[in-house]
Amino acid sequence: MVDLTSEMAGLWAALGSAPAHRGRVIQFACANTGEGASTVAREFARLAAVRARKPVWLIDADLAQPCQLEAVAADRERFGRLGAAVASSPNGSSFYAVSPPVIGRDRKPVAPARLMTARPCLGGRLWVTRFRAELLRSGQRVEALPDPRYWDAMRRHADTIIIDAPAADRSDLSITLAPFVNATVLVVAGEMSGAAEPVILRDEIEAVGGRIAGVVVNRSTYRPPAFLRRLTG
Known about the structure:
single chain; eight-stranded mixed sheet; Rossmann fold; 10 strands; alpha/beta; two-stranded antiparallel ribbon
């Protein structure tokens, strides 16, 4: 396992703390599958949970292949024991829609928010979500909503909300959510030779009104790029 503690400490310092009266939402995104955005998001969430004033939430937004809860459960030495599952929405809202809707045993539509749960770790300082993709049937689709209500509710509930977005080469979720988060951090694999795809993703996020906070080069030394100063300057 790659230890990103020092890199995440640098990123935390560059981003600054969340305002005392309102949480913030930080999205981690990458252009290509396999660049390690999930690992970086999870490591940042762990560091944030230790330093934040209120609970931190790690939202696994990969609605097709959720993996964060499994990864956390497998690393008990660093994340501790998982607690019982609870609803992941404080007010019943969700950042996604399922069509056609899931039908419950009572033959009534199941609210989308009920398809995502969260479990605590690190003594309740960190909550990790999981979308129950196994409940979907053939022909049902789940897509991100261009709606701020879930994120506004979470800002009142947590110190920092971290979104682990699926790679842009298989989902446009990071672009859909970009206008509703405080900042997006791009993750680029350290061994990548070209930079065209990350630049394209950056431009697409900024085109919809998203704010790029900076770049984390995974599996290499982290050096804050010049445009990271936009967040703190």
